[in-house]
Amino acid sequence: MYSSFYHIHFVLLISRQGKVRLTKWYSPYSQKERSKVIRELSGVILTRGPKLCNFVEWRGFKVVYKRYASLYFCMCIDQDDNELEILQIIHHFVEILDRYFGNVCELDLIFNFHKAYFILDEILIAGELQESSKRTIARLIDAQDSLVEIAKEQASSISNMIAQVTK
Amino acid sequence: MNPFSSGTRLRDMIRAIRACKTAAEERAVVRKECATIRAAVSENDQDYRHRNLAKLMFIHMLGYPTHFGQMECLKSIASAGFPEKRIGYLGLMLLLDERQEVLMLVTNSLKQDLNHTNQYIVGLALCALGNICSAEMARDLAPEVERLLQFRDPNIRKKAALCSIRIIKKVPDLAENFISPAAALLKEKHHGVLITGVQLCTDLCKVSTEALDYFRKRCTEGLVKVLKDVVNSPYSPEYDMSGITDPFLHIRFLRLLRILGQGDADASDCMNDILAQVATKTEPNKNAGNAILYECVETIMSIEDNSGLRVLAINILGRFLSNRDNNIRYVALNMLMKAIAVDAQAVQRHRATILECVKDSDASIRKRALELIFLLVNESNVKPLTKELIDYLEVSDQEFKEDLTAKICSIVEKFSPEKQWYIDQMLKVLSEAGNFVKDEVWHALIVVISNAPDLHGYTVRALYRAVQTSGEQESLVRVAVWCIGEYGEMLVNNVGMLNIEEPITVTESDAVDVLEIAMKRHTSDITTRAMSLIALLKLSSRFPSCSQRVKEIIVQHKGGLVLELQQRSIEFNSIIERHQNIRPALVERMPVLDEATYSGKRAGSLPPTVSTSTGSSLNLPNGVAKPPAAPLVDLLDLTSDDAPAPSSSDGDFLQDLLGVDLAPIPSLSGTSQAPPSGTDVLLDLLSIGTPPPVQTNPSTPIISSPSQNSQTSVAPLERLSSLSSPLSTQVSSPAGASPIVDLLDGLSPSLSMPDNKAQESNFSDNNGLVYPSIVAFQSGSLKMMFSFSKPPGNPQTTIIQATFTNMSSNVYTDFIFQAAVPKFVQLHLDPASSNSLPASGNGSVTQKFRVTNSQHGQKPLAMRIRIAYKVNGQDVLEQGQINKFPAGL
Fold this sequence. Notes:
The complex is a heterodimer of chains A (167) and B (889). In chain A, 51% of the residues lie in helices and 22% in strands.
């Protein structure tokens, strides 16, 4: 048989203070394991110096991380996966966030964390890359956002009508 | 219902949480929010379900429990609108994982949504399924996903492709249904579909050889052509990443080609040109380009041999290695590890650069480089490389010392050209990082020293010097203590001086000083102290002038709190006081420890990389001609008339002390040797109080005098090889690792093993019974079944057939099953049918073993097991205890 399946086991966004901003688990980890992983990795990654390489070996896996402003983007992969490609995927994700929020900052991701998840779901499924075109992803997210807007408007107009009637 | 009752907006909650100054404040806010949400849940509030779920997700991210929201996700998914479904699926993926039972309830909603008319809802369902589907869901929903691979919108096709990957990983049997739709995806133009389609084909090849053959025969040429088009495509802003069109697509193509080319000359041939083109034309100045080159090099290394391409690949790695970017150097080191298998010579050329990387400031790079150096060491370069590494050991970070020490010890053991060099290097390592050295390492050193009679004096003097400066290194102290106990008079009298040595003046009392310090130093642990006590006793007989002082030191521990030390102290004191006449005989020098036995035993308990070096007992790690094998002297055997079982507290302690096994180990019981003679040499090392075996057991020749050692004749060599044969069976036999005894400790009340004939007759007629099979052990993906049978006429004996199945999607290699039983049971393991366990339950490994329960009818069987194997090169260890044997075994 061949070597392992390549896929990303999880994605973590951690702030410089160690706060979790996004977590996505593509391999099964129990709640307890998840907090342990986050604790361990923030300990390792946040303390690494700026000029070191972007890879840490951890429990037989590799964690590829990159810091953008105050946030660390981390992805965990198998030993023999392509680390450089993962760096490229992280960058891809950041660029798409940037385009969506317009000069994205940590606060955007805090208050609109669900949107960051929606975007990630258009980039990765099952820990595999789904789309390389930033434009396509932006289009898909916009289309779904507008579906939500339409539904909201409908709902509010209905509740207005009900309010009118019951006044 | 009152709309104002449902609390704050999401934004306000996040603000409130961020405003908290202390963790307690945060907890209070979260508790209040959770209470409101719970109330809303129990009222089945629908208007704010959307918002409440979003809040729960945020609270979940902070690490608070949110299980009460799981059902809300399902309800939200089941509602009709897109916004509810969108947040519901997000919650499902975030709050649940595939192992939760609740997930089964969502299968029906997923099925409906996969058939929904709104393609975005189909997309949501595919995404959720791809991220969290379990094996059951995979079976139920595979037909839907398969159909969606042909959906009109490419964005659904690409999601369906990734979803299919998840499905075939969960249920590899389903792979064949996906082969032809996956092949169709390879003809698409849409990059998203191509990327996911190629990925699907790659994973199909991994789970199904049928798929591999199919793609290899029908798609290789097409793939090469499409990759050519991608490589040569003009600039396209949509897919451009630092001047390269869609590196992700490149990488996935290269990966699929790698699998198709591996082991198939025709397919490899077909892709040579394009690989050469990618390797030469890709711009190496940006990460995207380097990522492609990296993948390309790996493909070149994996496919069938083409020397031109390989030169190209090694050159790329050479360039990577001299790159200033740490990331690039890291991946170069990583890839050179794989390149060693292909062209070791070419990698050797970069040795100097790699050695520099061992000293890098970046821990990740150091670790990689050290692993690589370890693979590069051979007989011709071991001396300079070891010197470099030991020099570096002095200045390296504390946290790196452990890794570095382990590697140096392993290198030195494996390649050492002569014993003196080996001893020198080990002493340097022990002086520098003795606290990081594993027990096996210093045990092995003692065995080697014991086998080098010419070097006894040299070694004990070197150790004496080293201890003066590095007395804080525990394992150095232990080796020194042992050697001073054995060879103390050589230290004092400068016996056996080598011409490189400078004479030193050590008095008898100086030698005792070392032991006294080791005894009293507060950091010394019980092992060191116990060893020191023995050494002191030995010196008391050899240095009569110090006898009184030794006695005083020993007596100090009479009231000690540690039972072992107290006992030794009292016993030794009485030997010194009351048994003057037999003392010299009692504390004679240890017989030469048998290297072959020791290395054979070690091999059973060490990781495979090391065991290959020490496992074969004839290929000794050290270059000196081996003296005739010291026979397996079993001291306990000689005293067996008054001590029926090796379970006196002293014996038990000794075995724990050195972590070696004393009880008969199952694997040995199957070989031609009688179990007791397998007693570890290191046990002998510490046992005292038995008369020297020469006197009582003349049939086992003891080689203890140096003059005899030099007579290396043919006959002893023969004996050596005959000795080694049972040992080598032990190495390959799955059981027999020393930790077994530790497993046993909890199980076994101290019992002797009498041949209880009376019982045998009592239970002689159970033969016709049939015992039900049991699932003896089950973990996440590994299952072990036991089925039982009894040989006629022997009720104590049961034959157990163990069947192992592996339900995961990865093959388990180096599969080893070990078992330990209480002392009243004897165990004999046959070899396993294979050491590799196929994935996904496709076959199994069986192993027969025979247990003989000497307390049959009185005590039930019990067993502890350990299963070790490798998944993707990672060691996995599982263990457990089996108590539920059918009654009557």
